[in-house]
Amino acid sequence: MLKYALLGFLNYTPMTGYDLKQFMDASTSNFWHAKQSQIYATLKKLEQDELVRSHVEPQEGRPDRRVYQITEKGREDLQDWLSQPVMDVEPRKEKLLLKLFFSADQSVEKILTQLRIQRSLHEETLERYQNQTKEVIAQFSASEDMAEHGRYWEATRRFGELYEEMYIRWVDETIEKLEE
Amino acid sequence: MLKYALLGFLNYTPMTGYDLKQFMDASTSNFWHAKQSQIYATLKKLEQDELVRSHVEPQEGRPDRRVYQITEKGREDLQDWLSQPVMDVEPRKEKLLLKLFFSADQSVEKILTQLRIQRSLHEETLERYQNQTKEVIAQFSASEDMAEHGRYWEATRRFGELYEEMYIRWVDETIEKLEE
DNA sequence: GAATACATGTAAAATGTTACATGATTTT
DNA sequence: AAAATCATGTAACATTTTACATGTATTC
Fold this sequence. Notes:
Two copies of one chain form a homodimer.
Chain A: H1 2-10, H2 17-27, H3 36-48, E1 52-57, E2 65-70, H4 72-83, H5 95-101, H6 108-142, H7 147-179
Antiparallel strand pairs in A: 1-2
Helix pairs in contact in A: 2-3, 6-7
The structure holds a DNA duplex.
């Protein structure tokens, strides 16, 4: 699936694995993320499958850049994937909930601390979506050929915002019940 | 991490890999899930590490059962994990959002169809949390020695409920904006 | 008569994480 | 003087998914 994230970005414009990581961190990390090493490995595989092509741009004083661009075959594959509807609900994994589920023998004080830590982490995340991510999207949508993309980027950002608000609400509710 | 889900359940009572799968599907699938094959593989590893022990119970007409029970070492490991606070925000992966992010060139009609499919899938999931999962928890909490656990199980179920409500709200909001 | 439940697992592939390695330039 | 940024990657490991294989008993 990372495959399609990379093809999606390369469909905008050619760039390096390093650039792709920056873009993902700034825009899709809310719903899709990857480590730098995985991005490099996946790009290599995409090139083998001829969905992307690369060339090296020599640089002085800095490491050379390997710039990837999407091929016609890559565009078709991406288009194909985009047009297929998602037919399932994505399963979640939430360590904190797993812990909480088995926490009946822990002290309530310890659990409350856990929850308060999560609350502040999710508050930070929420603020990031509301400020930083929002700005990044606004900047990119400013250019004319990217304006149409802005609507969709904003929809995904909004999801992150709603998610974090929901999470904080759930923590507050749970803390309240435990304090009774 | 599946490791701790299995230890957590085995800390209630000894059971087979098959039983563990049933329990997880009925209770933790909202925030932690695993395939049957992964459960068997993980149990094998847990036994090698002496965190669980197993014995075979012969059966007639049905395959023999391999019943696992947690060891003292396993209990300590679980306890240790439970007492450590979670210090990060769990990253999500949402295929639909990834698709939506890159969908500016798709027809609005196609995207709306995508969103409507997701809406109905998440509505089903929400209802499951509100009815089936709620009942399962009520049943298990009925026995005296499990009553205290019920509070925590309910908190995790509530998370699923809030999540699905949020998701549906987001879909509705997004559909509305696209229809403008 | 067909499908589901019960119960176990193996093998291969895909995916993702962690740790390591290099080295100049720029910022703190 | 130390840390972060730019830029690449490899290797080992861990986790997860998919597909295969088996066979009885019960339910529809």
